[in-house]
Amino acid sequence: MTRLDSAIRRLTAQRDLLDWASREIAPTGLVLEVGLGNGRTYDHLRDRLPGRDIYVFERSPAAHPDCIPPADRLIVGDVFETVPSFIERVGPGSAALIHVDIGTGDEALNRALAQRLSPLLETLLQPGGLLLGDRAFDLPGATDISARTGVAEGRYYAYRRN
Ligand code: SAM
Fold first, then answer.
1. Looking at this predicted complex, what is its ipTM?
2. Ligand 1 binding site (Cβ under 6 Å of any ligand atom)
3. Whose CA is nearest to atom 7 of ligand 1?
4. Going by CA atoms, what residue is nearest to atom 10 of ligand 1?
């Protein structure tokens, strides 16, 4: 498989999973986008979930100008600093959907990051809330439902809070 094939597969999985989650999401609860990047997935979520409160976490915002969230919805800084204060602000169990895409090419670093981030994100999920991630997360209070999403195994991960 070429790098182009691989990029297309990854983006297709991402879009299919966001579409799946947009159908599955509970009618109330926040939507959190962790990692704005150039804003592609944020743009997709806001299109698929009109009217929902979407908060975006990003340490150095540099998205396409059309894809910058409103100032009061963009939380700038390192997630390990901003997510704990966000939990204090909105309370645990406030999120209906969290999408996390903050990985880099360094797999060891990605695993460590996911491990460290897992308890924070689990705290934010409401019962029945969904977490979608570009890698596996360690969520003892949630069920791995990746196999039920229709996305090929190991390409993207989905969890539902118990
Ligand atoms: N999903 C995005 C899109 O479709 O355009 C791409 C996200 S990009 C792969 C990852 C983003 O996560 C980068 O913009 C990076 O700055 C951000 N990021 C990585 N680690 C972070 C951290 N610890 N705190 C906050 N943002 C972080």
1. 0.99
2. 35-41, 57-60, 78-79, 101-102
3. 37
4. 102
Tokens linked to 53:
């409160």
Choice from 79, 101, 102 to test ligand 1 binding pocket (greatest atom count within 8 A of CB): 102
Is residue 30 a contact partner of residue 56, using CB atoms and an 8 Å limit? no
Walk along the chain (162 residues) and give the pLDDT tens digit of each residue. 899 998 899 899 999 999 999 999 999 999 999 999 999 999 999 999 999 999 999 999 999 999 999 999 999 999 999 999 999 999 999 999 999 999 888 889 999 999 999 999 999 999 999 999 989 999 999 999 999 998 888 889 999 999
Q: Find the 1 Cα to ligand 1 centroid distance in Å.
A: 25
CATH code assigned at 99: 3.40.50.150
One DSSP character per residue, 65-100 reads GGGPPPGGGEEES-HHHHHHHHHHHH-TT-EEEEEE
Residue 92 amino acid letter = P
CA of 103 to the centre of ligand 1 (A): 7
Residue range of the domain that includes 41: 3-161
- Number of compact structural domains in the chain: 1
